[in-house]
Structures are given as structure tokens and as C-alpha cells.
Write a structure and sequence with these properties.
257 residues, Rossmann fold, 8-stranded mixed beta sheet, 10 strands
């Protein structure tokens, strides 16, 4: 079991950033299948759901790997103020580095909450590098999610008036008025993802207290994306059995059972 979850850290470096990554699986040259995992708002690369998914996949696929990474301003990333452009830059660099470093035959994408929002935003402006993608509770209405469910009461007005704030969970993330404006401008619900729908799956908890269930269900139906409601699951899928179900559905969709 230890070998299935053995990991190592590495860094993808560019002139403008250093992206901290965590790899589960074999080193370059031995990887045939790779999952690029995007965590949620305020999270980091030491993500428990990513570890559980890696373990499940590698039980039957020893040549498979999973890479999880820090978004800008998350975990031990060096940036202090969050920008959507930086997030897009990180994902672009990660995809290029993953393909060059590991040369996988198949690249899958898996992302949760804010990570799902960012993957979808990336796909709206880039060619799709993923064979298939699974999103768990993707934060489609991210502006609403941030301002109504994550930011403390009264903080929105302060940020809108020009005072930056620290917001989040495991690590507080720096946000300002510019970031909020970029979220409003990048409205995912108005975009057309139907050409990619056959290769996407969305899992969403019926008891999600952070990302509105109805909004994500409507997004999936509009675009023809397979949508699986998970009864009793909260945002983090902490209710007994719900994370195991989500991982099982993810592995099955990727064809890695």
C-alpha cells in the first residue's frame, strides 16, 4: 500500500513563477497515464482527495501517475494576490511541462470547486489537452460562491471600495477589487462547452453548502454534460461513503478500473 501512495515533490520553474507540484507514481519514462489534479480555493498540493484517487488508480494501473499542484497564492506558492491570468498561466505551464516531462499516452484532468472553475475557464480559451475530465462540485458561479459563501459578512463592500483582503481556508488568499471584476467578466454559465461535453463528467453533492447545486446542474444540462448528484454529500464530500463514491465514478469514467 505504501508504494501506491509514494510521492515526491518537484517544481516547475519559469521566468515569472515557480509552481510547486506533488507526484504520485513512477518517474518520467514509466508513465503511460497521467491525471492532472486541480484543488479548490484555499487548498494546496497536499490534497487528501488527490491522494485517495492516486491510490485507487494505481492499485490496478502501476504505470499511472497523478500530479497535484498549488494554484497561485495557495499552499507554499510565492504569490500574494490572486489573479485569473496567473491561474491560466500556471495551468498552461503545467500542461506543457507534464507532456514534456512524462510524455504520457493519455492525459486526464480532475478538479474540484475553484479548480474546476479554472479548468473550464482555461478550456474556453485553449485547445483541450485532456482525453477526459471529471469535475467535483465545480464553482461555476465563482463570483457568487466567493462573495456569498466564502468571504465573511461585510468584507465585500470593503474590497469593492479598494481595500484588499485575505480570504480562504487552509491558507488565506489575497484578493482585491481587480480579482472580483475579473470573476464577473469571466462568466462561465454564458459559455458553450457542448463540443467537449462527451468527455466531461460532473459530480455534485446534494447538500453542498458552498457551491449551489442547482446552478451547476443547470450548467451541465445546458451543455449536455453528464451530471451525477451524490445524495448527502457536502462540499468537501466528508459524509461517510461520499468521497469513495466520487472516486469510484471518476476511475470508471477514466476507464482505469
Amino acid at each position: 500500500m505504501a508504494a501506491l501512495t509514494a510521492f515526491r515533490y518537484y517544481t516547475v520553474e519559469a521566468e515569472d513563477c515557480r509552481i510547486r507540484c506533488k507526484l504520485y507514481g513512477p518517474d518520467a519514462g514509466a508513465v503511460k497515464t497521467l491525471i492532472l489534479f486541480g484543488h479548490g480555493f484555499g487548498g494546496h498540493k497536499d490534497n487528501r482527495a488527490a491522494e485517495k484517487l492516486a491510490r485507487r488508480v494505481r492499485e490496478k494501473n502501476p504505470d499511472a501517475a497523478l500530479v497535484v499542484f498549488n494554484w497561485p497564492c495557495h499552499g507554499d506558492d510565492e504569490r500574494q494576490t490572486l489573479r485569473l491570468d496567473d491561474c491560466m498561466r500556471y495551468l498552461e505551464l503545467l500542461i506543457a511541462d507534464t507532456q514534456a516531462r512524462f510524455s504520457p499516452e493519455t492525459l486526464y484532468g480532475c478538479a474540484t470547486s475553484f479548480g474546476g472553475y479554472l479548468y473550464l475557464l482555461y478550456l474556453a480559451g485553449h485547445d483541450n489537452p485532456f482525453r477526459k475530465l471529471v469535475f467535483r462540485c465545480p464553482a461555476i458561479p465563482m463570483y457568487e460562491v466567493l462573495t456569498r459563501a466564502i468571504m465573511p459578512n461585510g468584507l465585500l463592500e470593503s474590497v469593492e471600495n479598494g481595500t484588499p483582503a485575505l480570504v480562504g481556508f487552509d491558507r488565506k488568499v489575497g484578493i482585491d477589487r481587480g480579482f472580483l471584476e475579473s470573476l464577473r467578466a469571466a462568466e462561465l454559465s454564458a459559455r458553450d462547452y457542448s463540443p467537449l461535453a462527451a468527455d466531461m463528467l460532473i459530480l455534485h453533492g446534494t447538500e453542498d453548502e458552498i457551491v449551489p447545486f442547482a446552478a451547476v446542474k443547470a450548467f451541465a444540462e445546458k451543455n449536455g454534460i453528464a451530471f451525477v448528484p451524490v445524495d448527502g454529500a457536502d462540499h468537501r464530500f466528508l459524509a461517510p461513503g461520499t468521497m469513495d463514491l466520487a472516486i469510484a465514478r471518476t476511475v470508471a469514467f477514466f476507464g482505469l478500473e
